[in-house]
Known about the structure:
Blueprint: E1 32-36, E2 41-44, E3 50-52, H1 66-77, H2 82-89, H3 93-114, E4 123-133, E5 138-146, E6 151-158, H4 163-176, E7 183-187, H5 192-200, E8 202-205, E9 215-218, E10 222-232, E11 235-245, H6 248-257, H7 267-279, H8 294-310, H9 329-332, H10 342-347
Parallel strand pairs: 4-7, 7-10
Antiparallel strand pairs: 1-2, 2-3, 4-5, 5-6, 8-9, 10-11
Amino acid sequence: MQTTISPSMEPSKAFCPNSACCARGQIGADNIVIHDRKRQRYRCTRCRKTFSARKGTMLEGLRKPTELIVIVVTLLSYGCPLQAIVHAFGLDERTVASWRDRAGVHCQRVHQDVVETAQLDLEHVQADEIRVKGCKMVAWMGLAIMVKTRLWLAGTVSLTRDRALADRILQQVRRCAEPLKALLVLTDGWAAYPGSIKRAFREKVKDTPGRGRARLCLWPDLHIGTVIKRTQKKRVVEVTRTMSHGSQEEAERLLQQSQGGSVLNTAFIERLNATMRQRLATLTRKCRQGARRLRPLETGMYLLGTTYNLCWPHHELCKLTHEGRVCTPAMAAGLTDHIWSVSELLHYKVAPTPWVEPKRRGRQKKDAQTPVPVRKQPSNRALVRLRKGVLCSATG
């Protein structure tokens, strides 16, 4: 396979990644110039530091051809086992695992930059967890989805199914949501969900002016529904639907508005669970690709979830009853205007936060009008400086 032709360098679209630079993360500030075209390096005119054009991407520091890396990551996002990729391309298994983890970490940064900062009007959210049976361990993967656009909102991995797992899922959903909007959250019968939802979706309210703490109040249009299924011989025989918080009428209105069905359900998050089990090799039932550590499980989840949001057109959204065009969940949510390629995803750079001048500490500088204190005149007494080990008779 031939080496990739280096893309044209555009300093106007680059930013300084140096955390100590006063112009870090600024695009179009005219502080980036080309330092070396052959090695693909830029230079910042503010901090005088040079950096690679791949800085901040998944491909930073890799010497393999870009086409090969993109093909391997695409196969991993579709659930291809590592052993098959190793046999097909003649790579080392540790190399493929390293690419998977690097791609997952990069996709996590992209998800935080694109989805968690979007401030979406979620309307209808469903949350659930997957039991992961690994090698000598059992883990839990919590997921959440926006029903109207099928956008994957949050995901977390834990060894225990406790309140901390539910809190982390709902806190991620909270970062994606526009505050104080009408919201319906549907979950299964796990008792930890209602309390975690109430802790996540609340705001500080100051009742009285002056000093004192503000109290935390729930969103006024927050509605929490619970769907409990009873099975016999692996078949659902009874479904119990209850409202843990909020009104039934408003919940039904949000269901119709988000096209999430006519009754309380968790069908959409269960469909996402099936997609995760299909495309994440460690979640495939009755396979030899069992999970051994939480880190590969988490990176694989972010790789699959981010490509699901940005790269793969959703079959249901393409119908006339929804968007009526070929689009991804991110396009339906208004986060992007085109379908991303895997190469574009891996080349995406997350800009650091803008530099803020630190506060100066210590005494403030005195004004020029402030009179300078007059230094005392030295006395007529002679000053004698003694050297170590030398006696002087003039000290008397």
